Amino acid sequence: MNYSRFINIVSAARQPSPIRVLTDLYQRSPPSMISLAGGVPNPSLFPYETTTISLKDGSKLDFGWNIMQQALQYSSSAGVPELLNWLKEFQIKIHNPPTARYSPEKGQMDICVTTGSQDGLAKKTVIEQLSTDVLAIFFHIAFMMHMIFQIAHDYDLLIIEDDPYYFLQFEKPWAPSFLSLDIDGRVIRADSFSKILSAGLRVGFLTGPKPLIERVILHIQSSCLHTSAFTQFMVLQLLQQWGQHGFLKHVECVIEFYKKQKDLMVTAANKWLKDVAEWHEPAAGMFLWLKVKGISDTYRLVMEKALEKEVLFVPGNAFSIDSSQPSPYLRASFSFASAEQMDLAFQRLAALIKEAVQTGRETR
Ligand SMILES: Cc1ncc(COP(=O)(O)O)c(C=O)c1O
Predict the structure, then answer these.
(1) Were both Cys, which of 151, 204, 306, 364 would link to 192 (CB 3.0–4.6 Å)?
(2) What pLDDT is stored for residue 131 in this prediction?
(3) Which ligand 1 atom is at minimum distance from the Cα of 204?
(4) Is there a contact between 229 and 46 (Cβ–Cβ < 8 Å)?
(5) Which of 137, 165, 191, 192 to mutate to test the pocket of ligand 1 (most atoms within 8 A of CB)?
């Protein structure tokens, strides 16, 4: 692929910062290396000494001074090298992208760590003509994936795969990712640890063709320098302790929880909303999408009426490219609520919808 046609002027003009290059070099050097480069603060002055993190399974992550020095120090813009290695092996195991075997110029699979997957998605600003040459894929539409990939291939488009709920798929086999189909090197995939390990850590990663990931890394160099090394080490230590098997075992526990929650919400929806809304039972994630019958826009219903009755949803227009457009949809999360709360919430929603349909006033 000709990647240069996707890269905007600002990104194309970026050169690696010599300071960042030296930081990378120093990080990979033997202890005998004497560095008089870089404005690296002396860690002996940092007030933090060691960290012990207790895990729910009873084990501990111990950050001795050696790890602490690295976790509290400037780090590589692409990500902590050991974490990158772990992630590369893992992506190959999970998605087996054809690009893993390509040469760098042909779009070899590469990875960089981002401050959550949202940050990775924001870094797509390195790409030129976003509205016309990039397909942003927000949800898995498994049966349409081969078709979409073919269209992207025929029209030479990039695909941005925004997939933080990949590990919350309730049934096996999991839907294939676009990354796994990427024979051309045209997919940039945004992954996240938010839904599986913790959202506050702000650790995600981008996987894509090397020529584009390199541009993203230059963007990181010129913006935040790197994702917090401390939180990267929190993830790394855990992943090293668990291994791939342990991580996937944890994923199964998370899936089990959300699947039960989904069942509870569907039960509550069946009880209260059958006459006033439509939905598909979710196959993944933490949300039930409702299409409200007889109402063209749910905004007032959600933001005023439901709020008054102390129940929160997200109106569908929040997910539209043009949020001024009316939307009959609303999103209900089954992540937090108990069965009783879901039941009460949908009972209230059903009453509000009926009232709104009767008065016929639900437009913005
Ligand atoms: C579809 C989608 N993409 C991206 C994100 C951002 O996730 P992260 O916490 O990894 O930045 C979210 C968060 O809820 C999301 O729902």
Answers:
(1) 204
(2) 46
(3) 10
(4) no
(5) 192
